[in-house]
Design goal:
By secondary structure, the protein is mainly α. The protein contains nine helices and no strands.
Length: 198
């Protein structure tokens, strides 16, 4: 049983590396203007979508806040002096964590937009060259949604290959699919070596 878990962990590690390889090679071939357009869309729509998700995710604390306000309004209004200050303080307390969670993603998207897409291309080039910093950044949890988002800028063939290996990653823990997963990984790595040698 322990050996099977090690095989699955190893398989996930290899598939993650293959996914990042496909992503970086795809980004390398993608026009910088396409990457920049997605960064602009992420910056423009990200806060709006994040706000909607946050509102629905935080509806109970908002309801509790309004309930407390209606019960203790004379005391609270005496402390805060106005309803606007109270509501502003409640909103900051409720949405602060969501804002802080979205800050790394916003920083990445801003860097990509301001560099006209070249920051992501630069990071991917360094990943393909084996830079430890680039590898650590792209494998960090903060980059998972970024990678998913910027896959849309890649060419259709690269998107299809990425989707295929993402599906394999989801099947890697299934013992019935282990041989197929390993075979497809080996095939990809062999094709990659042949392209690099030839």
């Amino acid at each position: 049983m322990q050996q099977n878990k090690l095989d699955v962990d190893s398989s996930h590690h290899v598939i993650t590396s293959v996914l990042l390889d496909i992503f970086c090679r795809g980004v390398k071939k993608t026009a910088a203007s396409n990457i920049r357009a997605l960064a602009i869309a992420a910056i423009a729509l990200g806060p709006f979508m994040g706000l909607i998700i946050t509102i629905f995710g935080k509806i109970i604390p908002v309801m509790v806040t309004f309930g407390l306000w209606s019960i203790f309004s004379p005391e609270l209004l005496g402390i805060f002096r106005s309803r606007e200050v109270y509501f502003t303080a409640a909103a900051i307390l409720i949405f602060w964590q969501s804002f802080m969670d979205g800050l790394p993603r916003l920083s990445i998207d801003l860097a990509v937009m301001l560099s006209n897409g070249h920051a992501l291309k630069w990071l991917c080039n360094h990943y393909l060259e084996g830079s430890a910093i680039a590898i650590a950044m792209l494998k960090s949890p903060a980059f998972a949604p970024v990678i998913t988002h910027y896959c849309d800028a890649m060419q259709i063939a690269d998107q299809s290959k990425y989707a295929e290996f993402l599906d394999l990653a989801n099947q890697a823990s299934n013992p019935l699919k282990a041989v197929e997963v390993q075979s497809r990984i080996d095939s990809y790595l062999r094709e990659k070596r042949e392209k690099e040698d030839g």
